[in-house]
Amino acid sequence: MEEQNGGSPPDIAGAGAVGARVQAANTGGHTHGRAPTGQLDSFIYLDHAATSPLHPEVLAAMQPYLTHAHGNASSLHRFGREARRAVEQAREQLAAWMGCDPSELVFTSGGTEADHSALCGLWLAAGRRGHIVTTMVEHHAVLHTCDFLERLGAQVTRVAPGKDGVVRAKDVLAAIRPDTVVVSVMWVNNELGSVEPVLDIAAAVRANHPHVRVHTDAVQGLAALRLNLHEAGVDAAAFSAHKVGGPKGVGALYIRRGTPWWPVLHGGSQERGRRAGTENVAGIVGFGAAIERLRRDWDRHEAHLLRVRDRFWAEISRIPGVRRNSPADAVPGILNVAFAGVRNDRLLMRLDLMGVAASAGSACTAGSLEPSHVLSACGQTPDEVREAVRFSFSDATAEDEVVEAAARVRAAVTTLRERTGA
What we know:
Helix content is 42%, strand content 12%. It has 16 helices and 12 strands. It has a 7-stranded mixed β-sheet, sandwiched between helices. Helix 1 runs antiparallel to helix 16 and helix 12 packs parallel to helix 16 (399-420).
């Protein structure tokens, strides 16, 4: 593509370096939002919904379990007992923040496994038959699992959202049939940041369809909402550590006590027989540390996300032809926008050369150049979908960074429009 010409990225002095200094001040000299080694020092990372940088506190907590505390949590000797204590402490940290009992949490390899295990296990426990209700805006971890279950004989109804990406609770409830066994609705959409009516759906299902189990993909919700699983009334929920400053490769599955559910991974008795395989002790410890930090800093975290999101939108809203795809009440960590006449693949490449990392949607599909299924489900045209860009933030994002990033976005949009005559 022509945007790749011109050699190395320019050495743009700006808010990336400022943001790094701000983070250094907040973390005792460490930085955790910097560019990859060998790249632009002022690179600004605005793709936290894809993954957030590992926080220094989390790395410090993990370090012993990557080196000398190397025991297998299933071993009986002192190394194993030390690892087991660390795993159970992390389980307690998650449960205290999520509003559930530690015994209701199963550690997994990430959010995708948790979603897959929840849906397959609930459907299998219902007798390997039955109807599933989900939505058209789910993450592919849910949609592709439903496709798989259809091949095994399940019937699936996918409920359409409104233009804002939010499904209506009444539409989900209307899709329930006498043979429905599972309803799966995500808590926060990963592309738009829209909050789905999970609480209303769970309450109505429990009151009117007590035989139906409610699952929610809460991967994005963990960083954005103060969740309480027992109060929410859901039967199963999926989480991932790397969305909240934790490590990649570890997640958690919540299964409410008493919920009929079959494990789908076999070969060992780990996780009380619910998920076979040697526990990723260092990753689990990191997840616990990330949650503990989230608990400690929640009020500041929430206020910071709102401040940087609003500042960024205030800056880019001045660019002609911009439109906001995220609804007004979306969570503050995600902002999906589009620039009329500017294709997102070209814009993202240009921004990368200018030192800004963003995305066109889910990190699991963004590299495929396929149009967003979420925006398509919202009724946008193919051309509108191909103009959409997602910017996402965390507490590693400095306000000065988003001001500088907005200036680079304006410059990139202007350049691309001049080249294409848009």
